[in-house]
Write a structure and sequence with these properties.
The chain is an all-beta fold and about 50 residues long. It contains no helices and 7 strands.
């Protein structure tokens, strides 16, 4: 079971996303943040972080 409410912040009367959305899957699917990369659990899209 997911806890989607943890992926948003409330700023005044608006919701703000904490994580980036997946460019392949679109809005609603977020990239998981790992130590060295951002990855999508749905399609496998990965962006490596620069150190």
């Amino acid at each position: 079971m997911t806890e989607k409410w943890k992926l948003y912040d409330i700023k005044g009367a608006k919701l703000q996303r904490k994580n980036r959305p997946c460019p392949r899957c679109g809005e609603g699917i977020f990239l998981a943040e790992h130590k060295d990369r951002l990855s999508c659990g749905s399609c496998g899209y990965t962006v490596w972080k620069e150190t």
